User: Fold these one by one.
Assistant:
Number 1:
Amino acid sequence: MFNFQFNGWLTPFINDIIRKGSESRIADLDFIRKEINRFLDGPQRADMIKGNNYYKGIHDILGHKRTVIGEGGEVTEVENLPNDRLVNNQYGKLVDQKVNYLLGKQITFNTDNKVYSKILNDEVFNASFDRLMLEVGEDSLNCGIGWIYVYYNEFGELSFRRFKPWQIIPGWADDEHTKLDYAIRVYPVLLYEGRNNEKLIHKIEVYDNKGITKFVKDGSTIYADGSDWQIPYFYADNMPLGWDRIPLIPFKANRNELPLLKRVKSLQDALNLMMSNFDNNMQEDVRNTILILKNYDGENLGEFRRNLATYGAVKVKTVNNSDGDVTALTIAVNSENYKSIIELLKKSIIENAMGFDAKDDRLSGNPNQMNIQSMYSDVDLDANKMEMEYKASFERLLWFVNAYLSQTGKGNFDNEEVDIIFNRDILINESEAIDNCAKSQGILSDETIVAQHPWIDDVQDELKKLKKQKEENMAEYGLPMGQAPDTKGDKSAPTKGDKTPEGDE
């Protein structure tokens, strides 16, 4: 562990403070129990789980049953009809689209302090953090909110962990949901009593300014979780320490914390049902033809269907001078109707979720940048709201980062301003962008032009390469890069009509 030094933003506490805090928590066990029961059975958690399930392809259509109007007008389930349950997961596609559009590229933290900038971009918010943010972004859209827990690992390094939103009960201090008074994490754990007996319990972790208090919920009973049920957030010189803030950072997709599925669930369900019905109707090719029987030589319709399916023929007979016969009344399935409705539903899902259609007609041929930007307009507007919420969350996260850097002697960066840049993954017309960059020389700075070039990932690295190339050019020719030597005034240089010495080439 690092040898931390105490500053004003840390709250050291000793065993008697832990004891007093735990006594107050024990007195509030009824409150914790009520909060947990309300959350576990509440609609908000149900919406979170539903959003996560739909993203993974677990849709309501998978429980669909075929029904008919039975005797007395009652709806009756039938099991002898095709009942394919198709999932066309446009919702999951839109979540991936939005997450990768905003978070698919590394988030950049720009600051005038070069040391601070390198620490943030290379050490703290590295590739592992970018991968974590993709998961949190999925949570934000599927559940309306995602959570990152800040902690120290076994090596004393600042680390980040994702908490599942349907396991977190936030205790907000304000109506705008910007500050936490406390947070409760509740998650299921499967215990084995003996070899074959399984028992489901719930672990409970209560987070406040002092530390974490652990409980176990077994049925309706809540009790302390072992001997280490009270733990601080970290230690320094064997002294338990706590943050001035609860190290749980919310990342919201929108200020109302509404899951994306709320916008499109009915449309997604209708799309699944329409495709399933079309598939079922195509399989019922025999049933699409109503057969009219005259003097059928058999006992029942079940036998008739079996003979027709097995032999492709049935026997009829003449009764009372009336010839037997089998005639057909055909019911055609109009595939064009299904196709039109399915395409309309897909388009409606994209519009309501504010996504974009990668097969948009505006991308045909060689689209200009205006057409591309028009196609991205909806997803860009939605990303603006999400980015604003995320920037506020990163400001809270940077407080913990700065505290860590200060206590580990890497520097005090509390007063440094940081510009958080989300490098959106947008399709562009490269030829048009390169042409615009070339035309901007002499009007804009090299750094601005390089930053807009579609082939550049690391602006500072490219500027260093340009500087090195200019220096080499000056050393070799004594001229700026790109400028050719002027030979007009050089009498020694050969001109038109001059002959070279014999033997020279």
Note: The radius of gyration is 34 Å.
Number 2:
Amino acid sequence: MTKYLSLYQKIKNDIQQGVYKPESRLPSKRTLADLYGASLTTVEKAYGMLFDEGYIFSVEKKGYYVSKAIDTRNFAVKKTNENLKLLPLPKKENYADGFEYSLWFKTIRKVLNDNGELLFRKSPQMGCEVLRNAVSEYLLRYRNMVAQPSNIIIGSGAEQLYETAVLLLGRNKVYGIENPCYSRILTVYGGMGIKLKKLNMGKDGIKASELEYKDFEVLHVTPFHSFPSGVTTSITKRTKYLNWATKNGSFIIEDDYDSEFFAKGHPIDTLYSLCKDNSVIYINTFSKSLSPSLRLGYMIIPDSLLSVYEEKMKDLSCSVPVLDQYILADFINSGNFERHLGRKRRKM
């Protein structure tokens, strides 16, 4: 810390702790300079900072005085290093669950070398083009899903994407959710003041009788390995979900968490892939497939909601750092992501 900052901090602390009382005269600049072995310029800078912050005021030809508005009761007792209770640091363990993180670090170095100034630009509102393109191509290769990059939105995890879905569809609607469901769904929707209708689960998804009610307007489902029930929705029930949306002119939020780890063979068709009338909003993240520390996910919205998104989100920015988006895009484009998924699936 520079000398004038140290002097400024010392005088400020003395004022806050009552060493210098309100309206009392402070030592002259010459006195302070002699006391602390500082130059007059150093003292002037320190007093100038205190003056700018309102701690002191000056009287012509008399010097500086402590502001009469200072009330020492508003300041906490000065803390010293002995008061700090540092948190224990995590031990070096394998948090990556088999993930070859050396590949990730190699990708980071490559992205830094290849992209330079691009990494310092502001992310487009819906996310960087390079990642939206990579996700689109990956979904076509790995999931047989056709999703145009222009319909893909990048976000920082499932919770943020749930909030985005609500902002698109409206807070005033009743949202039907699986019962039981992932606790974060309740936390996010509850925190936004959303009215919820809990729909009881059967062996192959939400019970058909629950879908007959008309007292909810949006359906939020996790068709693959719904948590905590572990239920995977049958193709018959998925069709009923879509029929419900078509019949009521409503939207379905498809939460496809964990879907990369499908049983051996081909992946189960998503509601998004089966839908013919653009009524499905698809959400997925990389928390399970890569690491929960990577706060990154994506949402696919139908064409009918693109203008709504542009209008309602025009003042908001993408919450994912550009560097993270470029790293993940390169990791996907290089084939490392799919090879990683293959290794994890073989161990299941």
Note: DSSP finds twelve helices and ten strands in the chain.
Number 3:
Amino acid sequence: MSKPLIVYYSRKGENYWNGSIKKLSRGNTEIVAEMIADITGGDLFQVETVKAYPDDYYECFDEAKKELREGARPKLKNHMDSLEDYDTIFVGYPNWWGTMPMAMFTFLEHYDLAGKRILPFCTNEGSGMGGSERDLKKICKGANVERGLSIHGAEAADSRGKVESWIGKMG
């Protein structure tokens, strides 16, 4: 079996955290992505937008809603040359408005994912996976999109046991 890829989008700075706003030095999804890389020995790739989202949580929240409504595909700082070497791809993101940030759509639509195994993981403050698994199945044509892992963002740093258990069940 080839080494997996862990591709993720994460946002540090102001985040919703257990009912209030907290400034994070590292994004919750990044923390979980690094755990998965450590557990699996996989390669990490962070999706980053050319235009940064506003630092203010509520301004970012509004911009994310506007992007979703418009079906935006934000420009990314970079893409991987190829995903050819990876059979299994963990796809991580925060739940924004019931799905992935639009930057993840930009990234995933750039590649032919037919035949790939997609394992989604999502950080959120109570909204779970939302409709992201359905959206992944639409945009990852020909890929096997498996059941995702939802991690409560405020518990991301303490979620290693949950992450290990999920990876163990996925085989």
Note: The first strand starts at residue 5 and ends at 8.
